[in-house]
Amino acid sequence: MSGRKPTGAGEPPPADPADLLGELAAGREQTADLLHALTAQAERTEALLRALNEHELTTSRLLRGVADVLGSFDRLLAHESDVDIESYRASVRRTAAVLADMLWNNGVELIGAAGEIAEPDTHRVVEVADNPKLAEDAVVSVIQRGIRYQGRLIRPASVIVSSGRDGGPEPVAARPATDEEQP
Question: Which uninterrupted H or E stretch holds 62?
């Protein structure tokens, strides 16, 4: 008997070596595409993890800063009532400045200050007051400061703005004549 095995009816005929090389090349290309996709996914995952770690660090810094400010307020409130009111106010102002600096250093911007021009995208005008010393739309007072976090507006500032006019009576020429004043 010869060393050849008989081929059965259910077995495919032997493949052409050129076809096998083509299939191998296609498999290599497919493997390279999958490797590229996996590498890109790994890079996205790493970027997400870095962002999550940064967010956790920022949150931790903010919470430590808020706890420090609360500690300052606790110490202020623990003082006896015979404390000079001006020194007490100065201590409160210093504590507020520490809080504002801590927020600023962590990407929080407080919006709204007397004298600045109210911008429609960052200020909500709740009242207009006559004040000839300030330009039109200049902030007279801040009802509630606005907040911007990492460039995104969280809350607009609620403000009272100047009309830029004197609040006195209108000049006669600017006032329409009444029935009694008409000739």
Answer: helix 17-78
For residue 30, what are the CA distances in angstroms to 26, 27, 41, 72?
6, 5, 17, 63
Q: Tokens 């996914």 identify what position?
A: 41
Per the listing, tokens 């919006």 go with 111
Q: Tokens at residue 61, please?
A: 């810094």
Residue 111 phi, psi dihedral angles, 5° rounding: -110, 140
DSSP state letter for 9: T
pTM recorded for the entire structure: 0.57
**To the nearest whole number, what is the mean pLDDT of the chain?**
83
Question: Model confidence over 38-96: pLDDT tens digits?
Answer: 999 999 999 999 999 998 988 888 888 888 888 888 888 887 767 788 888 888 899 99
Place of tokens 């021009």: 117
